[in-house]
Design brief:
single chain, mainly alpha, 3 helices
């Protein structure tokens, strides 16, 4: 399921356009910084990216 599909599944979609845009921005923030993802080892995308970047720095320093 995509994050957009999940948004519509868990959100009341009786918004006008401006409310819908605000709700989508809020959902994007939650999806990327609060909601853990099974495919990422139950990390948020932000946590996963931070770990990845730290590992990349270590690899560069070791070579």
């Amino acid at each position: 399921m995509t994050h957009t599909e999940e948004f519509y599944e868990v959100t009341d979609t009786t918004f006008d356009i401006s409310e819908l845009n605000r709700a989508l921005l809020k959902w994007k923030q939650v999806y990327n910084t609060i909601r853990p993802h099974q495919a990422l080892g139950y990390l948020t995308p932000r946590q996963f990216l931070e770990c990845y970047q730290q590992n990349q720095k270590r690899e560069v320093m070791c070579h």
